[in-house]
Amino acid sequence: MSRAAIELQCIGKSWGEQAVLKQMDLSIQEGQFTALLGPSGCGKSTLLRIIAGLETPDQGRLLINGQDATYMEPAKRGLSMVFQSYALFPHLNVADNILFGLQVRRANRQQQKERLREALALTNLEGLEERKPGQLSGGQRQRVALARSIVSGHRICLMDEPLSNLDAKLRHTVRHEIRALQQRLGLTVVYVTHDQTEAMGMADHVVLLNAGNIEQQGSAQDLYGQPNSVFTAGFIGSPPMMMIHSDHVPLDLWPSRRQYDQPHRVLVGVRPENLSLHAVGEQHVPATVVHQEFQGADAYVYVQLDDGHTLIVRAPHNRSVEAGARCGLSWDPVHAFYFNQDSGARLWTPSAEALTAVPFAVLP
């Protein structure tokens, strides 16, 4: 059974009057790849800096491997970090950049040599030892930063948006390399990103932050398949979940509608891949085709509802529709999610327990 490598207990942090982290509790398991995901300003980088010791929390405790590290010096926390900017010394070659930390700690030469050889092999940098950072590609520079983290020997690695400076194709390649290294070495990785594709593709555990709070956490499958709020549903998935006001949804597409006393305060969420296009019919949501985007295996069809909202339907790549054409939308109700329009909270499958928790719902 794994144990917690990092524990945050009621961590709070403010900048003046603005609360950046709001009494946050989080446990990160040993050997786990955890992604801190969220939009700009949600608090994910501040949280990482608190773990690293670069910021001090205003309240709460931080435990690293069971030891109170709330006010511990960064160098004593047993962590390594990989930054977006690589943080390489331009005047040092690859080998010296990788070994810099060991050289500062005056590790013996044999240990340095062995760790360098291992790190170069793991990051596919063999043969580049004498090159300076300016002679490397962006992907190679990021591998040097990873190799430096590996030779440190620390079991916990913090990564702050390390792929942001790379192009899309290179990000995909390095993403898989980071994940493979983490699994091979059994590292505990805390990875900050605003890119849900990175988080979902790499992490064992995704922590979605929103305005200083943990909105939802779990596996990527959990967040995608069982979002607990409009925020999660709209942030996870590309394209995200489509929201349709319940006033526009016919009864056939929402069989449980009568179980709600005020159904006009409900948002119905459906993933784009679960929406279907038809000719206009009574039991469909009427819409107008705006345009279509070819995406290889799929086509994204943009449609506008009569209330002006635009939705995206993921259709087969060979589906052809004309802009301006009237159409109807439908879905299997089993794929629909229901949310409180006011709070954004998920309304779960109606039951005695669920309905009593919803202020505007009544038992059938």
From TrEMBL:
<feature type="domain" description="ABC transporter">
    <location>
        <begin position="6"/>
        <end position="236"/>
    </location>
</feature>
<dbReference type="Pfam" id="PF00005">
    <property type="entry name" value="ABC_tran"/>
</dbReference>
<dbReference type="InterPro" id="IPR017871">
    <property type="entry name" value="ABC_transporter-like_CS"/>
</dbReference>
<keyword id="KW-1003">Cell membrane</keyword>
<dbReference type="InterPro" id="IPR027417">
    <property type="entry name" value="P-loop_NTPase"/>
</dbReference>
<dbReference type="GO" id="GO:0055052">
    <property type="term" value="C:ATP-binding cassette (ABC) transporter complex, substrate-binding subunit-containing"/>
</dbReference>
<dbReference type="InterPro" id="IPR047641">
    <property type="entry name" value="ABC_transpr_MalK/UgpC-like"/>
</dbReference>
<dbReference type="InterPro" id="IPR003439">
    <property type="entry name" value="ABC_transporter-like_ATP-bd"/>
</dbReference>
<dbReference type="GO" id="GO:0140359">
    <property type="term" value="F:ABC-type transporter activity"/>
</dbReference>
<dbReference type="GO" id="GO:0016887">
    <property type="term" value="F:ATP hydrolysis activity"/>
</dbReference>
<dbReference type="InterPro" id="IPR013611">
    <property type="entry name" value="Transp-assoc_OB_typ2"/>
</dbReference>
<dbReference type="InterPro" id="IPR008995">
    <property type="entry name" value="Mo/tungstate-bd_C_term_dom"/>
</dbReference>
<dbReference type="InterPro" id="IPR003593">
    <property type="entry name" value="AAA+_ATPase"/>
</dbReference>
<dbReference type="InterPro" id="IPR012340">
    <property type="entry name" value="NA-bd_OB-fold"/>
</dbReference>
<keyword id="KW-1278">Translocase</keyword>
<keyword id="KW-0067">ATP-binding</keyword>
<keyword id="KW-0547">Nucleotide-binding</keyword>
<dbReference type="GO" id="GO:0005524">
    <property type="term" value="F:ATP binding"/>
</dbReference>
<protein>
    <submittedName>
        <fullName>Sugar ABC transporter ATP-binding protein</fullName>
    </submittedName>
</protein>
<dbReference type="Pfam" id="PF08402">
    <property type="entry name" value="TOBE_2"/>
</dbReference>
<keyword id="KW-0472">Membrane</keyword>
<keyword id="KW-0813">Transport</keyword>
